[in-house]
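Try this one yourself first.
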């Protein structure tokens, strides 16, 4: 029963990691496009912001993606 619980916990952690990677990659692409940076530098920008704000990188990435999505929605009149 303990091993089963540990395996379920690991599966959930992996799911979160996969979702996090996707949103981080999206945010990295946004930073690259907006600032004209390469992928490594854009990632460094996100990491620096994460550390400065003392929040997880995933949270910073979610905020970047949400901000751009909100701007796009308003701009397109949706």
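Now uncover the answer:
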């Amino acid at each position: 029963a303990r091993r089963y619980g540990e395996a379920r916990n690991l599966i959930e952690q992996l799911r979160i990691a996969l979702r996090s990677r996707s949103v981080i990659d999206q945010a990295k692409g946004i930073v690259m496009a907006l600032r004209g940076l390469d992928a490594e530098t854009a990632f460094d920008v996100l990491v620096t912001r994460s550390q400065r704000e003392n929040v997880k990188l995933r949270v910073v990435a979610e905020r970047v993606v949400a901000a751009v999505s909100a701007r796009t929605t308003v701009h397109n009149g949706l």
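Discussion: The radius of gyration is 16 Å. Residues 2-35 form the longest helix (34 residues).
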